[in-house]
Amino acid sequence: MNRKTKKETKPPFNPFGGLGWLYFLIPMILGWYFLVRQTRIPEITWKQFDTQMLSQGDVEKLVVVNNDQVEVYILTEKLSKPVYENVPRELFTSNPIKGPHYYFNIGSIEVFSDNLKDAQQNTEDSQKVPVSYVKRTNWIENVGSWIFLMGLLIFFWFFLMRGVAGGTLDRGSSMFNFGRSKARILEKGEKNQVTFNQVAGIEEAKEEIYELVKFLKDPKKYSRLGAKIPKGILLVGPPGTGKTLLAKAVAGESGVPFFSLTGSEFIEMFVGVGAARMRDLFDRAKEKAPSIIFIDEIDTIGRSRGRANAFQANDERESTLTQLLAELDGFDQSTGVIVLAATNRGDILDPALLRPGRFDRHIHLELPNLNEREAIFKVHMAPLKISKELDVKVLALQTPGFSGADIANICNEGALIATRRNKDIIEKQDFLDAIDRVVGGLEKRSKIINRDEKVRIAYHEAGHVVSSWFLEHAHPILKVSIIPRGRSLGAAWYLPEEHQIITKSEFLDTICAALGGRASEEITFKEISSNALDDLEKVTKQAYAIVMSYGLGDTLRNISYYDSSGRAEQALHKPFSETTATKIDEEVQDIVDRAYERTKSILKEHKKHLDTLAAVLIEKEVIHKEELIEILGARSFKKESQMIAS
Ligand code: ADP
Active site includes 461? Predict the structure, then answer.
């Protein structure tokens, strides 16, 4: 605690405030003076000296300094001659200075003596110019240049101290402040505050977290009865489900300072920085208590420290995690600091982090269901100008499996599309196009596709549609298109039903529908192509999941190799024998083979439908559900009729 208070009360050191600038100015002026003084006395050549001064008998004396420079003193009475006009003058009187008046450099003392002797050979001894030799250490000049150099160094040092990047004296911005946490602080009254009204759908989570807001607003009410509020709350859920939004809403509603940063911001290339930043973060939060710390993507530091990790040791991450654990233990609930953390990999977090007293409350967020999606659409459409006829429910129906972030994206994308079309309001079609764009990427009509390829793509997509149309458990089709989009050349839009449990028949029918494209190509062209890459990837993953995770296989019954702790990913050895591995592979191949044969027989049976659909697709490129019903007849399965009714 003391450490922190000291830090705070010390005013920031500002070399440019007060008289600090003198530190620079004095050495600079001194240095400059000595440099200039040096050049004030004019330099002359031996010849000038000989002809203009020595031969005229104007020289009073010579002083040889350090055997390499000769200072020339001119007789005072001769200084009035015009040649001596350039002699330096005294500052105030303008009289010539006392001397030396000139100087010249000599190569060696011997040559100089000889030259002087020659020049004065006709001069009487008494008239000869006296020469004295001195050794002089110009300490002032030396010191002056040193001071000048140091002044420069100090200047640069302060320049660096001010922070190369930000140019401010803020903490955290300087390159010497590695140990400072980089948390962004959201204080009360700041703009862009999020409220619970902006969080739609996740009602249970909101309710649970609302208790925190009440506590932060009035901590005494809780402590009166001895109730303890949880220290740490972990928000777990897929990306874009509103974890960050929820945390911000807590801060916005309760009006307490909110420190937010992501797990990766703790880690630098220097060891020990993460732990120091963690300490600093908690210190700052405690200072401003009641406050909220929000650590996004906590799995970056909170990954379980399992044995398997010994091979890829990451001491820095572990010491940061240990520091986090220590900090969580180090304050009691009455401090008023609440730690929120978010992750989409709740399963891989270190158990030590999850035990009571640390992150003891977990809130699971899931992808929104139909009603929740409708609510989220409404929140994001509130600031938009939308058509009155638009039925939000239709959009919610068309977006199963979409996260809150996807929906926010669709709303914005819809507004952009409507603007591009120069509309005054956003209509249903704009949103539908936005959905397509978010799902499949940008339409690429310019992609060059030759006629043969187009036919193949049409038969491929028609294969998906026809097979799923006549499979009881396949997802209902919404529309099909052969306009290239993103990476894909064509696509069939399904409307997966929202339920939590998937039966074996549903798995198998989905696999059949996914194989429909390849089967259709084989039946029609007698040759298969590379056009089924995505489908096969999906099918293979699903078939392995059926056998290895869900225990739905025929040979390996009721066995699951799924590891919810996430450690299996890092393990070097598979948790089963080679024999089992062979069995798994055989079983997977068997499932896919049987599904493929089944799909082929469906398509053969409905070859006419396949041909008609492909022909219409080639012509129109996009076919919607209503037209599909016209071509293929209504689907006779019970679920489908429910879908249409809704
Ligand atoms: P994450 O779960 O990955 O932290 P975010 O909270 O950052 O997701 O959500 C990203 C964006 O998605 C939010 O800024 C918001 O616009 C939107 N969003 C997500 N969930 C919701 C929701 N339940 N209600 C309203 N908007 C949401």
Answer: yes
